[in-house]
Amino acid sequence: MTIDFKKESSGLVPAIVQDANTKTVLMLGYMNEEAYKKTIETKLVTFYSRSKERLWTKGEESGHSLDLVDIKVDCDNDTLLVNVYPNGPTCHTGADTCWKEDNKATFGFLTNLESTIAQRKLEANSKESYVASLFEEGINKIAQKVGEEAVEVVIEAKDNDDNLFLNESADLLFHYLILLQQKGFQLEDVVDVLERRNKK
């Protein structure tokens, strides 16, 4: 990997720090060649502090270090993407990120869909919302719907209509997300179980 530390007269390159699991951007720091080499050697992310004018390993005072996973360089060889496992909040203010965002896993559209389902549960307007009506009928009805949709997926999997298979799969996933909410869980909890199994 070639990094152009000489592109700027300071010898510094920006280092964007990202959580390797959640993909949340945690902070922006700067590295010179010495900080980069120390990061690689110790597997603890080290920057060059422009205010302290010295190398600075994240967490050396707070204990909230950044364990290195990998480093990538951009197409111009002058910006780094540093993937890490953070040990505690990253920002000096105590926030998860320097943008005051929570560092939690998101699943794009599925996370938005979970929020909508949670809102429908809260509003409990069963006359206007199919989701609210399922919550009103309770766990047995919701579990039954998941079972029915699972059977439909199996049936369509054995057929040759890909469109029907995908539609039934979407129905199954949708009702499963409702079931998770009814049980007090989210997709993130299921992913955590899978990740723990993967580490064994």
UniProtKB/TrEMBL annotation:
Question: What's the protein here called?
Answer: Histidine biosynthesis bifunctional protein HisIE
> Domain Phosphoribosyl-AMP cyclohydrolase spans what residues?
27-99
List, alphabetically, the Gene3D superfamilies matched: MazG-like, Phosphoribosyl-AMP cyclohydrolase
> GO terms for biological process?
L-histidine biosynthetic process
Q: Where is this region: Phosphoribosyl-ATP pyrophosphohydrolase?
A: 110-200
**Where, subcellularly, is it found?**
Cytoplasm
**Family, per entry:** In the C-terminal section; belongs to the PRA-PH family. In the N-terminal section; belongs to the PRA-CH family.
The record's annotation in SUPFAM superfamilies points to: all-alpha NTP pyrophosphatases, HisI-like
Q: Which UniProt keywords apply?
A: Amino-acid biosynthesis, ATP-binding, Cytoplasm, Histidine biosynthesis, Hydrolase, Multifunctional enzyme, Nucleotide-binding
Which GO molecular function annotation, any one, does this entry have?
ATP binding
Q: Which GO terms describe its cellular component?
A: cytoplasm
Q: Which PANTHER family match?
A: HISTIDINE BIOSYNTHESIS BIFUNCTIONAL PROTEIN, HISTIDINE BIOSYNTHESIS BIFUNCTIONAL PROTEIN HISIE
Q: HAMAP family, alphabetically?
A: HisE (MF_01020), HisIE (MF_01019)
EC numbers for this chain: 3.5.4.19, 3.6.1.31
From which organism does this entry originate? Psychroflexus gondwanensis ACAM 44
